[in-house]
Every structure is written in structure tokens, then in C-alpha cells.
Design a protein that fits this description.
The complex is a heterodimer of chains A (about 210) and B (about 210).
Chain A: H1 3-11, H2 23-33, H3 39-59, H4 62-79, H5 89-108, H6 131-148, H7 152-163, H8 168-175, H9 179-201
Helix pairs in contact in A: 1-8, 2-3, 3-4, 3-5, 4-5, 6-9, 7-9, 8-9
Chain B: H1 3-13, H2 20-32, H3 34-53, H4 60-75, H5 88-103, E1 122-125, H6 145-161, E2 174-179, E3 186-191, H7 201-204
Antiparallel strand pairs in B: 1-2, 2-3
Helix pairs in contact in B: 1-2, 1-3, 2-3
Classes of the chains: A mainly alpha (about 210), B mainly alpha (about 210).
Chain lengths: ~210, ~210
């Protein structure tokens, strides 16, 4: 992409970000501004699944992710007067969530946890005798381990680009970076994840990934 | 055929982040290079595993709990404002200001000579020592007339309030002078146990 195009994209708004139907958040915000506080619950209902998943993918910890989601909505509520109707609400919310996750990540330390707290989620998949489920469990652990070793910047870029489905330009606007930087971070992260998996899978048989 | 060049581009190729010309070149290379094709397949596979491993673990219960928690926080009264909380930056700025004010008038050129052992903090009494005892490095200062008159005025008030009206012995106050390292700053302390004498007896002591 030529630099001029990048500059235009950097200056633009997040208008092309995938979003829930525009009428949903906007209607809820209008009700909220009219004094109907319960409208915020409706607003959350439209977005909370994505915010929780985003926070968990960035932070790598279920409880931290729930804290981050809660803080995201509290900040959003306090800043809702500054939101302009007609703009993609979910993109605005993702930006807040990313900032909250960064703050929490800084407080906790730079490295994300190794997703160990998510092991319990695979309890159903690791039923005795289900060999396929065991392999699936191992594969998930392997990938999460790989993700946990990434620098925070690469991890966030990878989550936004490959897991949240944003384009490099959209992710760049949220992160305050140039699209070329995001592409570089994402490419590095993808290569590291693949190399980590390849190394572990190439290990002698009998060893756990 | 340069494998490293294509291998470097595969992480961008795998999710469609290459420009059209770059994409065309990589595709052409992959069609002719089994090694790079295998690397591309591995990248595609690890990307699929990534999405599989990071599928959201949160269910409807988690979302409902989050919503209830946030709405409860919003319904709670806001915390009382924290008063007398001075940001650390403000404190630091105040400290810098104080230091700047204290050091503003200090001479920037040659430092003032420090008092020697014989001329350190001086105690002189006007009854026993004269002004010549002042250390040589310190330049003479104009007399602190205003300070002395303030002290005398206080003494006059005390004289007028004495019931017997007896004459007080005239004694000069003890004078303690400290010459600081800065020649423009001298600390003078006047001390006297009895009321200070009247400097103008013709006006103040006349009944």
C-alpha cells in the first residue's frame, strides 16, 4: 500500500469496521441519553460477547478478562457523551477495551499469563478414551503457549487482525500505529506461532507439547 | 529460485496481506517450489489452530454476570470526591518552585569566601566589642534601622505600663551576628532580658 493511502486511512474514522447493525447501538444510546439507564444493559447485550473474548485473547486470563470487560463498560458509560451517533459503536468500544487491557497488562507485568487458567475449559473435551479430544486439547494448549510467548504488541495486533477480523488499517487506527507496522507485527506473530508449534510437534514422540 | 524471500512473505500471504503484485509473485513461486508450498501449508494449519484454540470460552451465564455486575456498579452512588489529594506532579512542581526562589538571588560568579576558623559565627556585644570584629570577607551592611526601631517601640510600651515609674538601667542589647556563606546575607539577633532603652528620651520619657 502506498504511503498516501496509509495516511488517508490513518486520518479516517473507523467507519469500515465490522459492526453490529447501526440502529441497535444508536437506539440504545438515544434511550440512555433520554434518561433510560436500562438501555445500557441492552447496549451491553449487543457487544459483551465480543468484548469478553477480546479481553481474554489479549490478557490470556479468564478472570482478568472479566475485570477488563467490566472496566471497559464503566469507562464507556462515563464517556458516552462524547460518542457521536452514527459512528460504529463497536469500534469505539474495542478501542476502549484495548486500552483497558493494556493498562491491566502493564499493572500485571508485560507478559501475558500462559493461559493456564483456561485449562478447566477443556474438561469436557478431555474425557477418558476420547483420543481425538485429547489431541485437540494438546493442540489448543500448544497454540496458547505460543501466543503467551509473544510480545504484547504482537499479541494484540494478532488478536485484532486474525481473531477479531479487523483489517490491518482498522487495527492500526485502534492501536495508534501505521498499518505497515501492524502488518509487520502480525507477520512476526504468525511466524512465531507456527515455529513454536512446529518445534513442539517435531519433538520426540511421547513428550507432551 | 530464492526460498528465503518467499518464506519471509508467507506470514503476510497466509491471511491476504500482500499487495496484488506481491501476491502474484508469491503464488507463482509456490506453484514451482514444493518446499515453500509445504511451509505455506504449515502456516495455514497453524492459523487454523490459532482460531480453534482461541474460540471464546464465555457463555451466556458469563455475559449475564458481567451485565449484572456493570449495572450494579452504575446504580451505586458515585464515590465521594477525594479531597486534599495533591497529585505528585503538583508537589514536585511546588518543590522546584521553592528551590528556585531560594536560590534565585545567589551570586552566580565567584563564590563568597567561607569564614575561617577565627572568623566563624561571631558573637559580639556592643558593650565589649566593636564593628571591627566583623569578618573581613563580609562587606558592611547598612544598619537595620527598621528592625531596631520596632524593638524599641515594643520596649517603650512596656516602660509606659510600669506602675512605679522607676528608671531602668540603660544597657545595650546583646548582639549576635552570623555571617552566612553568602556575603549578602547576615543574620543579626538582638537579645536583652530587660526592656530596651528608649532611643528618644526627649519625646517618650517626658511625663
Amino acid at each position: 500500500m502506498c504511503p498516501a493511502t496509509e495516511a488517508v486511512l490513518m486520518e479516517g474514522e473507523l467507519s469500515s469496521l465490522p459492526d453490529a447493525p447501526v440502529s441497535g447501538p444508536d437506539q440504545a444510546i438515544r434511550r440512555l441519553r433520554a434518561g433510560d439507564r436500562e438501555a445500557f444493559a441492552d447496549l451491553m447485550g449487543l457487544t459483551e460477547a465480543r468484548v469478553l473474548a477480546l479481553a481474554w485473547r489479549i490478557l490470556g486470563d479468564r478472570h482478568l478478562a472479566e475485570d477488563a470487560a467490566q472496566e471497559t463498560y464503566l469507562r464507556a458509560f462515563r464517556s458516552l457523551d462524547h460518542f457521536r451517533l452514527g459512528e460504529p459503536f463497536e469500534a469505539w468500544l474495542i478501542r476502549i477495551a484495548v486500552n483497558v487491557c493494556r493498562d491491566l497488562g502493564r499493572k500485571r507485568g508485560q507478559q501475558p499469563v500462559a493461559l493456564a487458567s483456561l485449562d478447566g475449559l477443556e474438561a469436557g473435551a478431555t474425557a477418558p478414551g476420547a483420543e481425538e479430544a485429547v489431541l485437540l486439547d494438546q493442540r489448543r494448549a500448544l497454540v496458547r503457549q505460543a501466543l503467551a510467548t509473544l510480545p504484547q504488541g504482537e499479541r494484540v495486533a494478532l488478536v485484532l487482525r486474525d481473531l477479531e477480523g479487523l483489517t490491518s488499517e482498522e487495527a492500526a487506527r485502534i492501536l495508534g500505529l501505521r498499518p505497515a507496522t501492524v502488518r509487520s507485527q502480525v507477520a512476526s506473530a504468525r511466524a512465531k506461532v507456527q515455529a513454536h508449534c512446529a518445534r513442539r510437534l517435531a519433538a520426540p514422540k511421547g513428550g507432551r507439547p | 529460485m530464492t526460498h528465503p524471500h518467499v518464506l519471509d512473505q508467507l506470514p503476510l500471504w497466509v491471511e491476504g496481506d500482500l499487495t496484488a503484485p506481491e501476491l502474484e509473485a508469491v503464488e507463482r513461486h509456490l506453484a514451482a517450489c514444493p518446499a515453500c508450498r509445504e511451509a505455506a501449508d504449515q502456516l495455514r494449519q497453524s492459523q487454523a489452530w490459532l482460531r480453534e484454540a482461541l474460540a471464546s470460552p464465555f457463555g451466556a451465564e458469563d455475559r449475564a454476570r458481567l451485565r449484572a455486575s456493570v449495572m450494579a456498579r452504575l446504580a451505586a452512588p458515585p464515590p465521594a470526591p477525594r479531597r486534599f489529594l495533591v497529585p505528585s506532579a503538583l508537589l514536585a512542581a511546588a518543590a522546584v518552585l521553592v528551590v528556585a526562589v531560594l536560590t534565585w538571588n545567589r551570586p552566580q560568579g565567584k563564590p563568597a569566601p567561607l569564614p575561617t576558623a577565627g572568623t566563624g559565627p561571631e558573637f559580639t556585644s556592643r558593650a565589649t566589642a566593636g564593628a571591627t570584629d566583623i569578618p573581613a570577607p563580609a562587606p558592611p551592611l547598612p544598619p537595620r534601622v527598621r528592625l531596631a526601631r520596632a524593638a524599641h517601640a515594643q520596649a517603650q510600651l512596656q516602660v509606659r505600663q510600669r506602675p512605679d515609674g522607676t528608671a531602668l538601667p540603660r544597657r545595650e542589647p546583646a548582639r549576635l551576628e552570623f555571617q552566612t556563606a553568602d556575603p549578602t546575607i547576615r543574620i543579626i539577633w538582638l537579645a536583652q532580658a530587660t526592656p530596651l532603652p528608649d532611643p528618644n528620651p526627649t519625646l517618650e520619657e517626658t511625663p
